[in-house]
Specification:
Number of helices of chain B: 8
Oligomer: heterodimer
CATH architecture of the largest domain in chain B: 3-Layer(aba) Sandwich
Helix content of chain A: 25-40%
Order of helices and strands of chain A: HHHHEHHEHEHEHHHEEHEHEHHHHH
Structural class of chain A: alpha/beta
CATH superfamily of the largest domain in chain A: NADH-ubiquinone oxidoreductase 51kDa subunit
Radius of gyration of chain B: 25 Å
Number of helices of chain A: 18
Largest interface: A-B, 99 and 86 residues
CATH class of the largest domain in chain B: Alpha Beta
Distance between the termini of chain A: 28 Å
């Protein structure tokens, strides 16, 4: 078939393959493959868990500090504990609506190792006391849907899901649900709205978080695919072994999708907290260097919503709190590398356009603000920018996220980092996320914006014959070269 | 209102049975209707409303929020070129320009022969394989403009019909819970404390009582 490439996935020597051990196994997605290959024996963890009490299972997950892999990085075990005691039923919703630009890991986990995710769901359901699990898979991923449906059918037939699992009194149903294309549905309350059959608009919180009032107003735990996929390995090994990789605050491994201008883009399972961006970009087993003949201009450390980093931040480790203090976030494990050929305005516009298109329209600052951000950036890129446009952009941004916006330090201009997260005038973080590329680009590459605006000024005051003024158009991609 | 075929109507009822509350089946049923017709017809939305117990305006309200539901007929192949950041960096926008020229349409348009609808899509989670394209949501990775032309040719000739089903068909494997294996799909209000949770709670309470030596003093923490 045309242009079909198997994504690379390698682990460094000495690093356990916690979630990616079956990525390269041809039948790793089947029940037989799951129980006979990989870094542990499939469904063994479930057997062990069924001999423990739900409280014991929760405390193992808490002690191991399994951090949420969806973006916020909140410890899963702690989240589980937020369910109000004695309130039934409880639901689990698995967030497989992966759509943060740059993120490509959950799709692979669902396509290559669906049973690992299912076993993770069962462990969580047992611990929480869930009445039902909903596996919400992004609509645009039919291959993942097929693999999960087939795996669920196999597991139901084998007595691993449904009534009296493995002959015990543990019973739970796991239902596969498809989305239909909306980035905002990755936000947990929007995900719940969507699962209830509504428009995917986030709910106001506080007062009620999903753990207290979620799906059908019942206590609901929403966990990311990768978070739950960590559980089978954890219960096949030990808390100590899980914590032996990474750091105290960020133990274990995580999947990183490294894309953009590197020689070897791919999905890599790396130790959290200790691996640096330099390791990712330069190590032979990972990125194998910035595109040959080019140099790093900037990079996005955690998906489109994350403020940009620059060459000065390359030695920072992938540690959530540390990255937050430095003005960005690790987010969903999406690292996008941009070399010196990248036009900062064009890149910022593309990211902002994404948020403008995906804004659900519930909150005015986001609905109107992201639209204006896109319009202003587009006219700057088209050569119709006005001298006041840079300040106007920052002003619009300030209405969505008031006050200083998180940004990386700029030592050459003596500017310090402003820590994450941003403030927001909106219900969810989508609107404020649209500000990240704008403030990052303007703070570091203001001259690129000004250059495009100045050219336009020359046009308006020039006494030269009109025909000799170079045309500026958004369609002149070829003239502008590669982004 | 009928629009679903008898077989799909049975399937629709099975799908509704997977949820504690029928309205949750709205999006899956819209997908089923789109699989049947290639797009989501007004009649379908009216029928879905009857099936899940809401108004057809509510179904339209939900369906119109989501990118994948098409309210009018589209090409046999929806060709989505990703232009978001990772693909943009490696030529996604140029690839879209090329597709526009090859097909002679702008994003959102459909070719006169009804074969292709072109779309400028957001991130499709294939970032390390940029630039990426989906045809009816089936992936094609790392495409050059020449690869794209070849892909369009092969689609047109029917050579990829096994790989790329007609627009509307997503996962071809459906979940089958098996009548006798379903644990407990009932409305939320009919649910109580799960059996295994109660057993462990009672065990813990009994152990605590034995520790304290006064059986009557425990079990009141709920």
């Amino acid at each position: 078939m045309i242009g079909t490439v198997t994504p690379a996935s390698k682990v460094a020597e000495g690093v356990p393959a916690v979630v990616s051990s079956r990525f390269g196994v041809p039948d790793g997605h089947t029940l037989a493959g799951y129980t006979s290959s990989g870094s542990y024996k499939g469904y063994e963890a479930l057997r062990q868990v069924l001999e423990m009490s739900p409280a014991q299972v929760s405390s193992v997950v808490k002690d191991a500090t399994v951090l949420g892999r969806g973006g916020a990085g909140f410890p899963a075990g702690v989240k589980w504990g937020f369910c109000p005691p004695g309130v039934w039923p409880r639901y689990i919703v698995v967030n497989g609506d992966e759509s943060e630009p740059g993120t490509y890991k959950d799709r692979l986990l669902m396509e290559r190792d669906p049973h690992q995710l299912i076993e993770g769901c069962l462990i969580a359901a047992y611990a929480i006391g869930a009445a039902q699990v909903f596996l919400y898979v992004r609509g645009e991923m039919p291959h993942a849907q097929e693999r999960i449906a087939a795996a669920l059918n196999e597991a139901y037939a084998a007595g691993l899901i449904g009534k009296n699992i493995l002959g015990t009194d543990f019973s739970v149903d796991i239902v596969l649900h498809w989305g239909a294309g909306a980035y905002i549905v990755g936000e947990e309350t929007a995900l719940i709205e969507s699962l209830e059959g509504n428009r995917g608009m986030p709910r106001l919180k506080p007062p009620f978080f999903p753990a207290a009032k979620g799906l059908y107003m019942a206590p609901t735990i929403v966990n990311n695919v990768e978070t739950l996929a960590n559980l089978p390995w954890l219960f096949n090994h030990s808390v100590e072994q899980y914590r032996s990789v990474g750091t105290e605050a960020s133990p274990g491994t995580r999947l990183i999708a490294l894309s953009g201008h590197v020689n070897n883009p791919g999905i890599f399972e790396v130790p959290q907290g200790t691996t640096t961006f330099r390791d990712l970009f330069e190590s032979e087993i990972y990125g194998n260097g910035i595109r040959t003949g080019h140099e790093l201009k900037m990079f996005i450390p955690g998906g489109a919503s994350a403020p940009w980093f620059f060459p000065e931040q390359i030695d920072l480790p992938l540690e959530g709190r540390l990255i937050g203090g430095q003005g960005s976030m690790l987010g969903s494990g999406a690292v996008v590398v941009m070399d010196e050929t990248t036009d900062a305005v064009r890149a910022a516009l593309r990211l902002v356009r994404f948020f403008a298109r995906e804004s659900c329209g519930k909150c005015t600052p986001c609905r109107e603000g992201t639209t204006w951000e896109e319009k202003i950036l587009q006219r700057i890129l088209d050569g119709h920018g006005r001298p006041s446009d840079i300040d106007l952009l920052l002003d619009v941004a300030d209405n969505i996220s008031p006050g200083p916006y998180p940004v990386a330090a700029d030592p050459s201009n003596d500017l310090e980092a402003i820590p994450f997260p941003p403030r927001q005038t909106t219900i969810c973080p989508l609107g404020p996320s649209s500000v990240a590329p704008i403030t990052s680009a303007i703070r570091r590459f203001r001259h690129e914006f000004e250059a495009k605006i100045v050219q336009r000024d020359l046009i308006s005051v020039s006494s030269e014959p009109f025909a000799e003024v170079p045309a500026q158009s958004s369609l002149s991609h070829e003239a502008a070269g590669h982004v | 209102m009928t629009r679903f075929s008898p077989a799909n109507l049975r399937l629709a009822q099975e799908i509704i049975g997977l949820y504690p509350v029928a309205k949750s089946a709205t999006i899956p049923l819209c997908h089923l209707a789109q699989e049947q017709d290639g797009y989501l017809a007004d009649d379908s939305m009216a029928q879905i409303a009857e099936l899940v117990g809401c108004s057809s305006a509510e179904v339209l309200g939900t369906a119109s929020f989501y990118e994948m539901f098409k309210m009018h007929s589209v090409g046999k192949f929806c060709l989505g070129v990703c232009t978001n950041i990772s693909c943009q960096l490696l030529g996604g926008e140029e690839l879209l320009d090329h597709a526009e020229q090859t097909l002679g349409i702008r994003p959102g348009g459909t070719t006169a022969d009804g074969l292709f609808t072109l779309e400028d899509v957001e991130c499709i989670a294939a970032c390390t394989e940029a630039p990426a394209v989906q045809v009816n949501y089936r992936y094609f990775h790392r495409l050059t403009p020449q690869d794209l032309d070849q892909l369009i040719e092969e689609l047109r000739s029917g050579a990829l019909d096994d790989v790329v089903p007609a627009h509307g068909t997503l996962g071809k494997v459906r979940q089958d819970l098996g009548e006798d294996r379903i644990a407990n799909i009932t409305p939320p209000e009919d649910q109580t404390e799960p059996v295994w949770v109660r057993r462990h709670r009672e065990l813990a309470e009994a152990a605590a009582a034995a520790d304290a030596g006064t059986p009557s003093a425990v079990g009141n923490d709920s």
